[in-house]
Write a structure and sequence with these properties.
Blueprint: E1 2-8, H1 12-16, H2 19-33, E2 37-44, H3 55-66, E3 71-76, H4 79-82, H5 86-98, E4 102-105, H6 114-147, E5 159-164, E6 167-172, H7 177-188, H8 194-203, H9 216-224, E7 231-234, E8 239-242, H10 251-266, E9 284-286, E10 293-299, E11 304-310, E12 317-319, H11 320-334, H12 338-386, H13 392-419, H14 425-437, H15 439-445, H16 448-458, E13 463-466, E14 470-472, H17 478-488, H18 495-512, H19 530-535
Parallel strand pairs: 1-2, 1-3, 3-4, 9-13
Antiparallel strand pairs: 5-6, 7-8, 10-11, 11-12, 13-14
Length: 539
């Protein structure tokens, strides 16, 4: 019958002490005394017996399973070389026993008798006890060092382990330390996401302890670690104190970074619904069911093609380029003419002139009132200083009343000065003419947010699309209503010229716009002016 040997050491120090040859010699001698032929020898170097997950132990089990008819026993120097955990030892022993293989020790005399099993159990239990005792002593030493501000674990990214004499601690790493410091400074601004900072740090050469890329879960823990502000925090030991090492970031920067992380964690994770490629998404409605159209890309053989479609009834599907073209045509049709815009500009100037005159008059009135109040307060001070008529309490009461009045008047003057700020109407109207002169091109160049606002300005109730009729709308936007309010409140410069401009606008709109099928018949909506009624009518 064959015997296989299992040898193990738990540290490199035991390798240098020739522990493996010692174990091999004792096991070979035991096998020779028992008249057993030695087959394979399995050696686990620098492997702890606290776990059964050891490479050579796994190979031993595979070998015993494949050669269970030839192998009679596994020989170890002592049972604690096989395992130092009772919970691991007996499952392994039972597995070998199911193959007809036993465990024997070269230095411990036990067999399958009750007394032998007791000795075997005591050997394994003593190994487990020794492990626990060593762990307790080690933990006590680590806790004592941590309570005195020393970091006793592997240094995190940005630091390196150092030793001065017998004292171990950490210090900023010259290579990774500046990178981690910059990470926290960028994070504290709130302008960078943790994932973006991880990519940036990777590009700067920051790597995990074993040289590989840093995982996102590890990165998230690093950004929360208070060690980077120089503090040692060990909740299970109740430790939270300043370490004896240099902090990579100051307390204020670290606190701002934590607030940024807290705010990002509180933000709900929602599906993206707004895409700059599809500004008409949800703004254009399905002409069949009234649901908002959605948008996306379909992959063709050689390119990706954008489409809008109805997610609800699926009866409407139109290419993105076609819908944008229809929207551009519609926008060009509904914008006011240049003559109309000139009248609006003139009306604005008249209103601004009248308003400025009112502000100037109010400002002069308040300045006179402020001057009177200041003179009154000066007289009160002189009267109190030169006579004994007023007591100090009366003086204070009257003076506080005057101070409140002076403050109120000064506040009103400040508000008037703010309202009277210069506004260049010519520049404003030039911008409006440029915007509305080529509205389709202006819309295509806007950002998504401005596009949405511009669409709502022109068509507050959105647009409806059908393949047969194209885009249609039922309500004019706030832009036109506000323009007519401005004209209605102003004195007309030239009534005949204005009527001519209105008639030209109305005739052009009535003649050209219905051909494009852009307006639907009004149902329940009555525009406030005759011209708007003409604008919104299909005939």
């Amino acid at each position: 019958m064959l015997a296989v040997l299992y040898l193990r050491i738990s540290s490199r120090h035991q390798v240098d002490n020739m522990s493996i040859p010692t174990q091999r010699e004792a096991c070979l001698a035991w096998a020779q005394r028992q008249g057993l032929e030695v087959g394979e020898v399995f050696v686990d170097e620098a492997q702890s017996a606290k776990s059964a997950d050891r490479p050579e132990l796994r190979r031993l089990l595979d070998y015993c399973f494949q050669h269970q008819a030839q192998v009679s026993c596994v020989v170890v120097y002592s049972v604690d070389r096989f395992s130092r955990e009772v919970s691991d030892y007996y499952p392994l022993k039972d597995k070998l026993a199911s193959w007809g293989i036993s465990i024997r020790s070269a230095t411990q005399a036990f067999d399958d008798s009750p007394e032998g099993e007791l000795l075997e159990t005591l050997g394994v239990s003593f190994g487990q006890y020794d492990n626990r005792k060593r762990s307790a002593r080690t933990e006590a030493g680590m806790r004592f060092a941590a309570e005195h501000g020393r970091w006793v674990w592997l240094a995190p990214l940005g630091y390196k382990n150092i030793q001065e004499g017998k004292v171990k601690s950490i210090a900023p790493c010259p290579e990774s330390g500046p990178i981690m410091r910059r990470v926290f400074e960028r994070l504290a601004t709130g302008a960078h996401a943790p994932a973006d900072l991880l990519r940036w740090a990777h590009d700067q050469g920051l790597r995990a302890a074993r040289g590989g890329p840093i995982r996102r879960q590890s990165w998230a823990k690093l950004l929360r670690n208070p060690i980077y502000r120089g503090r040692i925090v060990v909740p299970k030991w109740g430790i939270d104190l300043q370490g004896d090492f240099q902090a990579l970031v100051d307390d204020a920067t670290f606190a701002r970074a934590q607030r940024v992380l807290d705010q990002r964690n509180r933000q709900p994770r929602t599906k993206r619904v707004d895409r700059p490629e599809f500004p008409l998404r949800r703004f254009c409605l399905c002409g069949a069911c009234g649901a908002g159209l959605t948008g996306g890309f379909s992959k063709g053989r050689s390119a990706r093609y954008g489409y809008y479609w109805c997610w609800k009834c699926n009866k409407v599907r139109v290419r993105r380029s076609r819908l944008h073209e229809l929207f551009g045509d519609l926008v060009r049709d509904v914008v006011p003419s240049q003559a109309f815009l000139e009248e609006v500009e003139h009306a604005l100037r008249l209103q601004w002139r009248d308003r400025t005159a009112v502000v100037r008059e109010a400002e002069a009135r308040f300045r006179k009132q402020l001057e009177r109040l200041r003179d009154k307060r000066k007289g009160l001070v002189d009267k109190f200083a030169l006579s004994e008529v007023l007591t100090e309490s009366d003086f204070q009461r009257l003076n506080r009343g005057l101070e409140r009045e002076i403050y109120d008047v000064e506040s009103r003057l400040a508000d008037l000065a703010h309202d009277d700020r210069e506004i260049d109407l010519s520049e404003l109207m030039t911008f409006a003419r440029n915007l509305l002169g080529q509205p389709d091109r202006s819309w295509s160049r806007m950002s998504l947010g401005l596009q949405v606002r511009f669409q709502a300005l022109l068509f507050p109730e959105g647009l409806s699309y059908r393949k047969e009729s194209g885009l249609r709308t039922a309500a004019s936007g706030i832009l036109f209503n506000q323009m007519w309010k401005i004209l209605g409140k102003s004195t007309m410069r030239d009534a005949d010229a204005l009527r001519t401009a209105q008639d030209a606008q109305d005739q052009w709109f009535a003649a050209d716009f219905p051909k494009r099928g852009g307006m639907v018949e009004q149902k329940g909506l009555e525009p406030s002016t005759p011209t708007l009624r003409t604008w919104c009518s299909p005939s």
